[in-house]
Amino acid sequence: MSTGAVLFLIVFVAAVALFTRNFIRIRRNILLGRDVDRTDRPGERWALMARVALGQSKMVVRPVAGLLHIVVYAGFVIINIEVLEIIIDGIFGTHRIFGFLGGFYGFLIGSFEVLALLTWLACAIFLVRRFLLRIRRFWGREMTAWPRTDAGLILTFEILLMSAFLLMNAADQTLQGMGVEPYVQAGSFPVSAGLAELLNFGALAPATLIGMERFSWWFHIVGILAFLNYLPYSKHFHILLAFPNVWYSKLAPKTEMSRMPRITAEVKSMMDPSLPPPEPPAEPAPGMPPEHFGAKDVFDLTWKSLMDAYTCTECGRCTSECPAHLTGKLLSPRKIVMDTRDRLEEVGKVIDAKGKWEDDGKDLFSRISEEELWACTTCNACTQACPVNIDPVEVILDMRRYLVMEQSKPSPSLNAMFTTIENNGAAWAFGPDKRMDWTQE
Question: What is the model's pLDDT at position 289?
């Protein structure tokens, strides 16, 4: 095995190992949430995933951004088929090992090049939209320095990766024409051939071209491995979680609140004394917080809500459709999801540092204010708009439950309604003897 092959194998194994460790960490964080069964009606779930995640049905509601995203999505998925060949060539020291496919190989490489160019252009347009045109939904108050930097970095990095791919092919194609070993005749290069002519590669010495091809090859594959390990720290982790997140979507009506089994059992036992009272809550695992009514911290949310948090693309479509936000309220559904993820990451770091959970004196309410929670009208416009079926309303409702049931802190309007129900047996501020008076008007 050559020195280059050994070096590549070390880099590849290290990158895969690091990504695996980070993936396991994120999986552990997600499973800190409460259990919820989202495996019913599998046929509907597969169809939903095919339509929303694979078919990008919600993205194209906004045609410009939707079509550009489809280009980048297709480029990312299809062009990376070529990564398999690069990995094999890197490990075994071969060059274009799939070249034996002949005409089909030429079709593949040609298709990859066209997609690479389109992806390059799409990312450049995204950068212009985000940083020059400054589209409003990319500049909300929750889009602080890091979220904006993250988006810029990832788009710039994708442009660099596509550039390296095309430069690699341009040098390779020129070397093939010169008959330099081991650059065998293989592939079709509709884009990079023009690039090679534009840059006058034919006038360069073979040694210079080999250096350029090898540099671009290493930059491309190491860049992809670096990109892979950047995903767990970026909003672009949705590349991996979008499909399962959509599959585990809530299939019940969007406005249907989830039940709390112990509360349901308590009410039933009160209404029917023959029924046994509910079992007391199980003792929490050592070091873990007790069960709450509603959500005080990330442990009280379902694992699906925590997966939502890691799947968020921070695109802001939810916030741009939120009627509360549009009327000047403090609420931003995107911020709710981002705050949930940030708090979950904070909890994960405590567990990493101490080997178990130890109360750090913070919770979800350290990041999300009561004003934000009570501004929500539960219309679910945010959930409907989300391209990957994230449900911010579920987090809001769970946190509201905690405020009402454990803190006795409902909103003023709810407090008035509760008082009226207690006094009059109904939500209206008049007694039972007056309820039919409206029929006489």
Answer: 77
| Residue of 181, 180, 189, 220 lying closest to 105 (CA atoms) | 189
pLDDT (0 to 100) of residue 287: 66
Query: Residue 297 has which token pair?
Result: 């911290």
**Comparing 3-30+62-247 with 286-414, is the CATH topology the same?**
no
110-126 per-position pLDDT tens digit: 888 899 999 999 999 99
Sign, Cα dihedral of 137, 138, 143, 144: negative
**CATH of span 3-30+62-247:** 1.20.950
pLDDT at 384: 93
The 10 Å CB-count burial string (b at 16+, else e) for 40-57 is eeeeebeebbeebbeebe
Separation between Cα atoms, residue 333 and residue 313, nearest integer Å: 12
> How large a percentage of the chain has pLDDT more than 90?
42
What is the token pair recorded at 239?
């590349």
Q: What average pLDDT does the segment 73-96 reach?
A: 81
Considering the four listed CATH numbers 3.40.390, 1.25.60, 3.40.630, 1.10.1060, the one that applies to the domain covering 286-414 is 1.10.1060
- In 3D space, the residue among 321, 310, 347, 330 whose CA is nearest the CA of residue 396 turns out to be 330
From first CA to last CA, the distance across the chain in angstroms is 95
Residue 143 is encoded by which pair of tokens?
């889009």
Q: At which residue do the structure tokens 């390296």 appear?
A: 164
1 pLDDT tier (thresholds 50, 70, 90): low
d(CA 364, CA 360) in angstroms, rounded, equals 12
pLDDT value at 25 more than 80: yes
Give domain limits for the chain: 3-30+62-247, 286-414
